[in-house]
Amino acid sequence: MAEVDRLTSEQFGIPGLLLMENAAVGATLAIEQHFGPVQRRRVRVFCGKGNNGGDGAAVARQLWMRGAQVEVLLFGKRETARGDARVNFDIVAQLAQASPQIRLVELQSESDFAALLNNSPSRFNLHVDALFGTGLARGLEGMFVKVVEYLNSTRPYVPVCSLDIPSGLAADLPHPVGVHVVADLTVTFTAPKVANVLPPAGHVNGKLRVVDIGSPESLLRATPNHRATLFLVTEEGVRAYLERTRRMPDAHKGHVGHVLLTAGSRGKTGAAALAGEGVLRAGAGLLTMAIPASAQALLVSQCLPEAMTLALPDDSHGRLTEEGLRAGFAAANQHTVCAIGPGLGTDPAVRRLVQWIVQEGQSPAVLDADALNCLAPWQTGRGTPERPIILTPHPGEMARLLGVSVNDVLVDRLGAARRLATTHHLFVVLKGYYTLIATPEGDVYINPTGNAGMATGGSGDVLTGIVAGLLAQTPHLPLEATLAAVYLHGKAGDLANEALGERSLVASDILRFLPQAFKFQSSAG
């Protein structure tokens, strides 16, 4: 972001002071949209000496212009501020001489801050946090610890809006580096930062709003020294994919893909049924479900009548025979997409089948659950542009694929997903709160939909089906199909949560609300 700001001024002639003004106008509008009109409200703005504090001073002026009574607390001397921040502090100081509705107070120490609080008769309706922005790399110290503790202690009676990022967070890290502000609203500029989004740091941002301050879109994708590799999945992007792939009026089932779902076993047919319905609800034209022959009857009783089944020969213990292995491999190469794993088991015959499909198969593949465990640790098998391979592990499965501990994955989810994806040219969907989608090129997309109610058995099986169903319709767009599948899966879960609550939500509820999620995207905007 520092590079983007610099090049915005150098290459396009947009001065930093104008960018700061655009940020202030956008933040003020976001504040009014979130908290309501500011006229006659009392607002206290907490400013550091840097550019984030300059943003705060500019926001204070915008709030004052809309009729708020504003007090700006500058932690440091105005004379030591530099550049655009100094300009905005000077403006506030000049306005304070002409209007009793805006005030600038310079504070040098913790005792100054304590004295201010003790002698302040007024109660405030809103606090604006503009202490530290994206340049912070280590934990806060000294008086700033006390200031942040005070801001947090006044919530929820006095809500907090943070500018760019809650003070005390390091922008590039998902884990807090020390004491930090807990915001009700965070207005970030140009693009989200890691700590705006990824948990646990993302949890303290409150409602996140992104404000465009005028940097050209081309700079956000690539600058001479940096290439953006981290992206947020958006409703607009998913809607664009669905519009782009809308069915023609004369489409028939053969036009929209045939999925082979190799899943289920004795006692685990429910996983296959959930994944199968996900395939069809996502819009695939045809579904064939391959399952050991001895479990076929139970699957048929649980599954959609629209699905076909393929019985794979097995023995008296439910294990695939050599004939079953050959039939499973042959079928995998005869369909638009092969999805494999939910409820399949991990006996030696299944392991052979999964490894055979991954190493020598020809159809695009979606691997989940037991299929991933059969391949852990991942040593062989690479995706190609013609034959993409998509993995959908949860953190435990991811740890086994990489041969590391679960804690290693959780500490660096971005790095774990990116490492597996780039090493073996895979698409990796690392499930969890804010699911990550890593590409073979090393880009990582963060999905914002979903909720804790989806932490229930079968939720991942539904996702496998949705990914396979969308991929079957657009096998030439594996990334777009995967991003849409993850987003819509989470959106359906959010709709189910709104209707039913988190505690009682089960995986089949995600399927129940999936059509509504698709319809919502089609009608939005």
From TrEMBL:
Catalytic activity, reaction form: (6S)-NADPHX + ADP = AMP + phosphate + NADPH + H(+); (6R)-NADHX = (6S)-NADHX; (6S)-NADHX + ADP = AMP + phosphate + NADH + H(+); (6R)-NADPHX = (6S)-NADPHX
Record-linked SUPFAM superfamilies: Ribokinase-like, YjeF N-terminal domain-like
Annotated YjeF N-terminal domain residues: 1-221
Keywords: ATP-binding, Isomerase, Kinase, Lyase, Metal-binding, Multifunctional enzyme, NAD, NADP, Nucleotide-binding, Potassium, Transferase
Entry keyword annotation includes Kinase: yes
Domain of life, per lineage: Bacteria
A Pfam family this chain is assigned to: Carb_kinase
Co-factor requirement: K(+); Mg(2+)
All copies of domain YjeF C-terminal, residue ranges: 236-521
Residues reported in the UniProt entry to bind K(+): 52, 129, 167
Positions bound to AMP: 431-435, 460
Cofactor binding annotation: Binds 1 potassium ion per subunit.
Gene3D superfamilies, sorted: 3.40.1190.20, YjeF N-terminal domain
One annotated GO molecular function: ADP-dependent NAD(P)H-hydrate dehydratase activity
Function: Catalyzes the dehydration of the S-form of NAD(P)HX at the expense of ADP, which is converted to AMP. Together with NAD(P)HX epimerase, which catalyzes the epimerization of the S- and R-forms, the enzyme allows the repair of both epimers of NAD(P)HX, a damaged form of NAD(P)H that is a result of enzymatic or heat-dependent hydration. Bifunctional enzyme that catalyzes the epimerization of the S- and R-forms of NAD(P)HX and the dehydration of the S-form of NAD(P)HX at the expense of ADP, which is converted to AMP. This allows the repair of both epimers of NAD(P)HX, a damaged form of NAD(P)H that is a result of enzymatic or heat-dependent hydration.
Family per similarity comment: Belongs to the NnrD/CARKD family. Belongs to the NnrE/AIBP family.
Subunit note: Homotetramer.
Protein name: Bifunctional NAD(P)H-hydrate repair enzyme
UniProt organism field: Chloracidobacterium thermophilum (strain B)
